[in-house]
Design goal:
This protein is α/β, with parallel strands linked by helices and 297 residues long. It is built from 15 helices and 5 strands.
């Protein structure tokens, strides 16, 4: 099992060089190791799942990744895209009895995932992933930044150009130089300053334990858009209204699950892809994803 253990932290090439083995031999031994890891973990029986998609090739080729959010591990990688039929494949893998025991499904606002879950896991509450919602808000803020850059003439434009990262990052993640750039940007443009403050305050929505108070907060947030001419935010607010039930579900104590696991898993998958773990071998990529959170044998 030594080869498989080494491949958890090293590339196939580095392990092959260290162990004086052929590259293909190392890869096949790693596959054997990961299959044993999965067999040892057993068939999943999740109560709370996280659903996301990952791009595996160029031209928008997707696979679905489903995680057990209580066990904090990926349990399924598959489909041929991100359609309802692709999502149905997961529930087919899980089995009818286990699917009906799922009590909560965390996902983005992609309708095919939701539709499939309603059919196969009828007792599951749907919760929209906070990080996906905030990504939509970040996209809206960037559209406002671009609109302001196009609208403004003169020396003030220099404060907006090239500041996407500074504007979209949380202040605590910025360097001293980045914070100074942000300060200058917000001082130079009132509309961007308003949009930034609204973006920062929206995070409070997930702190409420009462849906009524969460709704009151959102209505107040939405009211602040009046006369601000922030069209992308108005569009974002309408999207939240349409999907309110899946956001308000987080107010219930039993739904206060750790939402960061799926985002963390996505980061791990990107690392796996960057390290070129057999992108041309989808089975290998699948095994890497499904075992990345499992303990060593």
């Amino acid at each position: 099992m030594q080869i498989g253990g080494l491949c958890r932290a090293m590339t196939i090439k580095d392990v092959a060089r260290r162990m004086h083995l052929d590259w293909h031999t190392v890869k096949e031994l790693d596959k054997v190791y990961m299959r044993k890891q999965l067999a040892h973990a057993g068939h999943p029986t999740p109560n709370v799942i996280g659903v996301d998609e990952v791009s595996i090739k160029k031209r928008h080729v997707y696979r679905i990744v489903v995680s057990d959010l209580e066990q904090k591990r990926a349990i399924w990688f598959g489909g041929e895209g991100r359609t309802e039929k692709d999502m149905d494949q997961f529930y087919g893998f899980l089995g009818k009895e286990k699917a009906e025991k799922i009590r909560l499904a965390v996902m983005d606002m992609w309708k095919p995932f939701r539709t499939s879950t309603h059919i196969h896991a009828p007792h599951a509450a749907i919760l929209f992933d906070k990080f996906h919602v905030l990504r939509h808000l970040g996209d809206a803020l960037d559209k406002i930044r671009k609109a302001e850059y196009g609208r403004i003439t003169g020396p003030q434009r220099k404060f907006i150009k090239g500041q996407k990262y500074v504007l979209l990052s949380h202040k605590e993640n910025l360097t001293t130089e980045g914070r100074q750039s942000l300060k200058l940007l917000l001082k130079a443009n009132k509309r961007l300053n308003t949009a930034y403050i609204l973006r920062e305050s929206f995070d409070q929505l997930w702190m409420y334990t009462s849906e009524a108070w969460a709704r009151k907060f959102f209505n107040n947030w939405k009211a602040q858009l009046l006369w601000q001419r922030l069209k992308p935010y108005e569009k974002f607010a309408k999207m939240i209204d349409r999907h309110w039930d899946g956001i308000a579900a987080y107010c219930k104590p039993e739904n206060k699950v750790a939402l960061g696991f799926v985002e963390g898993l996505n980061n791990k998958i990107r690392v796996i892809q960057r390290r070129a773990y057999g992108l041309r071998d989808e089975e290998y990529l699948k095994l890497k994803i499904l075992t990345t959170s499992l303990p060593e044998l």
